[in-house]
Amino acid sequence: MGESPEKKEAAEKQQPEVNIEMEQTATEEASVPLSSEEPAKKEASSTTKCRVVGVLGSFKWLSLCGDAPLITEKMDHAVEESKTRVRRAFSYLLHFLDITGRNFGQICFANNPISGFLILAGLAVGNLTVAICGLIASTVGILFSMLMKQPCSSIRAGLCCYNAALFGAVLPALLLGPNPVAEEVEVFIAVLIGSVFTVMITVSVANSLSSLKPAIPLFTLPFNLVALFAILVLRVHQPLQLPAKVPPPEFDWTHLVEGSFLGAGQVFAVQDLYCSGLVLFGLLICSPVLAVAGFFGSVVGTFLGAAVSPNLWNDAYAGVLGYNAFLASCAVCFFYVPTWRSALVALLNAALTLFVQVALGWAFADSGLPVLTLPFVAASLIVLGMTAEKQALPRAEAPLTFPEQHRAKWLQEARRDSIESTDTNTHPTHP
Amino acid sequence: MGESPEKKEAAEKQQPEVNIEMEQTATEEASVPLSSEEPAKKEASSTTKCRVVGVLGSFKWLSLCGDAPLITEKMDHAVEESKTRVRRAFSYLLHFLDITGRNFGQICFANNPISGFLILAGLAVGNLTVAICGLIASTVGILFSMLMKQPCSSIRAGLCCYNAALFGAVLPALLLGPNPVAEEVEVFIAVLIGSVFTVMITVSVANSLSSLKPAIPLFTLPFNLVALFAILVLRVHQPLQLPAKVPPPEFDWTHLVEGSFLGAGQVFAVQDLYCSGLVLFGLLICSPVLAVAGFFGSVVGTFLGAAVSPNLWNDAYAGVLGYNAFLASCAVCFFYVPTWRSALVALLNAALTLFVQVALGWAFADSGLPVLTLPFVAASLIVLGMTAEKQALPRAEAPLTFPEQHRAKWLQEARRDSIESTDTNTHPTHP
Amino acid sequence: MGESPEKKEAAEKQQPEVNIEMEQTATEEASVPLSSEEPAKKEASSTTKCRVVGVLGSFKWLSLCGDAPLITEKMDHAVEESKTRVRRAFSYLLHFLDITGRNFGQICFANNPISGFLILAGLAVGNLTVAICGLIASTVGILFSMLMKQPCSSIRAGLCCYNAALFGAVLPALLLGPNPVAEEVEVFIAVLIGSVFTVMITVSVANSLSSLKPAIPLFTLPFNLVALFAILVLRVHQPLQLPAKVPPPEFDWTHLVEGSFLGAGQVFAVQDLYCSGLVLFGLLICSPVLAVAGFFGSVVGTFLGAAVSPNLWNDAYAGVLGYNAFLASCAVCFFYVPTWRSALVALLNAALTLFVQVALGWAFADSGLPVLTLPFVAASLIVLGMTAEKQALPRAEAPLTFPEQHRAKWLQEARRDSIESTDTNTHPTHP
Description:
Three copies of one chain form a homotrimer. Helix content of chain A is 69%, strand content 0%. Chain A is built from 19 helices and no strands. Chain A has helices spanning 5-13, 23-35, 39-58, 69-81, 85-106, 113-126, 128-147, 152-156, 162-175, 184-209, 221-234, 253-266, 273-286, 288-308, 313-318, 323-335, 340-364, 374-383, 403-426.
């Protein structure tokens, strides 16, 4: 779900096949001479940079965390260095696996193939059909986006097809549950056709939303649109049966805590503790901030929902009240630089998302449609437009990578600005 | 409802604590040297300016009208000049009262605290709970927007929190009427939480809409969103009972005229002649054009609605068909420079709003949801995108103040342009 | 339905009364000196131009095809050259007829009065009331857009009022069918009032959508909004009766082919083979690409819809599943340069439109509202945001005329770019 227009734009400008050891470091280096002209300042900033590189360099395995710069680097080399046909085919396969992993990771804002494969493993543990359909949809999406010549950097970052992957996973989870409401063949065809449309819509809406200021990411809007339409079209045969109303269960704190934890897996409509654990572990590898933000978002959603009405306790226990809040909280921490004010906004967005979910759930109840991740998308689309005076609520700047790095770059930038403004104050004759 | 992106932008550029006697005059003065380089022209424009200042200056009390420049000025001085702690606390209280007043005024596009307090008095006369909840929501909104470091000028002009004030007033009016559909505690909590969300949404949507060209204001869209969601969430307990269908009453001209008049109070969901009178009087103090435009908009809505079907006569008599058209007509006269063409557009917008209200009312009937001010917002969002060739339908330019001044500035601008174009014609060698 | 913001903008820059023999040629000629400074290149491009002009010049009647430059030229001269009052009045009448024709043509993206009158003839053959109401609405629209001083070039290209023309045609077709659901007087008043609102909304939404990048046209969105609201308002009297459910008919290939053909007429809610034939013939005169694209879009919609469910066979046979896909396919071929990739996108858009229509039809079923051309608008608004790397999916550049010319200009541009890039490569010292 990390489709960010800025990121894409920035990525397009870079040579897609350029061989650099650490993309972010290179970008920093390039930008330094532009903004600072005195050697003293350059030294100061390069010291900071060295320290960051040093920390990452001495623990080589850390380059697998964040947005996995080590893997990106290896991939860049792989095709070039492979001399035989078999090796080249193998390196293309590696590329394909890298993109597939990132597709699943980006659903939770993690541009990291390892996170993606942990999530996929979680899906397979919870429901094998879901994992297989997700893989198929992701593959169809990748092929179609290559056929339509989408920007190489977007495809490689998983930004073109994460909606398709989510669509492929969630549609069978919803329709082929314990009480299947559609035939397997129908769902399979819907996954194939729908993933093509999902990629089309992802590309288009991302373009349109990026012309707003501040640029608004599209989250999983395309997935929601295509999934709702697919369910409506499949219903032309046989209407979805409304679930029987279950009386509210007894109140139980442990179930609520469990429900908060289940929220992570319910992003993919899989209600399974192991799946949730793997999703959270995948996020943790990419970014501890995202994992923590997601979990606390899920807690806010589950507990606040339980407070609204006993009618919602069943949903709260199953993690259904948590997954939208989970994503909403992650979204704020990914697109805003993590500060105490953005942490507050993240929790407020989780709460807003919960209320939207309750309201939409009520409004959709008669038609038997699921709310999917619409509450998260609606609330976050609105909340991400927030700005404040003088860096009080700063948006992460392109190229977007992961919250920890966003914060490090922001602190560095703020320090540089303060040095510059001091210089200007002492030499007031220079404009 | 006067949230205008241009205004905000322009206001942000100004030093928020600058001490000028008349903001608008100062702006004019500053802009003159930029556009006219010959003394002759400067003289001509400064003559016009002097006349305007003279008229306002000789009647000092007139500075309480319009956007109340006298009060703005006093407020600017108040904090600085207060030397003891008590006096400083007192001046902060005055600031707070100023903002509170403007919050209520801006709901009807009146950036004037006196208008706001007259409106608040009207609410208190009609329904004391409504006024108290409105005040609470407005206060929560102000505190939250300060916590999130919103631009000082926006907060002071009432543009951050007028939606919160409206939300606080309307929610209890709808839910705690003669047949209450929710408990008082619930509504109170909803007002507290909802006003925070309203401020968040106001800030965000204003940013997003301002990137369209011509920039579109957001009116009371955030209020509508939050109020609809609040009603839906509160219904998880107990469904809203659909009102019993009342047979159409007898036709009566006097009731229709009364209904047109009641429209002003129904903006706040208060059906009371005194309340309507105070709202209209408040508007009259800020801008006679707004008051007249609102009243005639309400007349168009009420009479046109009565002509559509006898089923709507009950609503027409209660002023329910008038309030959206009231606001729609005001909106056009506020954001377009008042000319005969914009007067026509104002009446057309009132008519369009009425039709949207009838259609939405019909569509919402089964779900028992109120249409709130959605018809006004939907119609006006669309209509305000209208443009025409060569100043035939000019938008008021930032900084927005009140219709009379918009027109004065536009006439002045047009005169200056015609002088310049004459100059250019006589000296065709200068490009 | 060819409302294109770029077109309008480009057209506004031109002098509306300029006398040029071929607008497009003139534009080309003017742009050449700007981009190419060496005579060699100019020669190359002017050779290409000459060939294009030659082909059109030697077959004078071909100037009636495309966007009918011959008629535009004659019209430009007509008013100026007429010396007596009667002749001037006559030439104004000619102008009015020209605009009326283009209004009806633009509904299918054909900026050609002859196409428009063929379509109008088709409507008259199918249902005389429809044609008359369409004419009235178109006339009201023209008068109102002149009163509101809309850009002369927009009005003359039919871009201001094609929505009004469609509204006037479709409303009586829907409400005054074999089982009329409204009285004739009501529908007539609705056509009069609604066409004014349609023009207002067309102008406004076109402005707002044009600030997105890539600029998105508005298609028939205003028609859909106003028609839905008109139907809802008229229902305040008497609810629309839901059509009785008809059992699915037998499957029949010939009926499906006939249904695909009927799709062209169903754009105007007229189910008549002669009407469809005249619509397709009108399109053929303007642009064979559009006619072919439309027909194949209709085929995709009809056959795909028939494959989804037997419940849809009745609709498929009547052409109801074809008209949205017809328009969707035309839209892609008009706004993208025709290539094999845009042909694929056209068919995908037709398929997406069909699915949206099935889903929306299901969602609207309970309320008895027609889907109008909403599926086409929704799908195409999204799909037209698509872009790709390096001219793989190029948008037609302003001024938009007709697909064949878009492609010719694009090929010419591509050739010029390749010459320039060769030059740059051989002289690498020049930046």
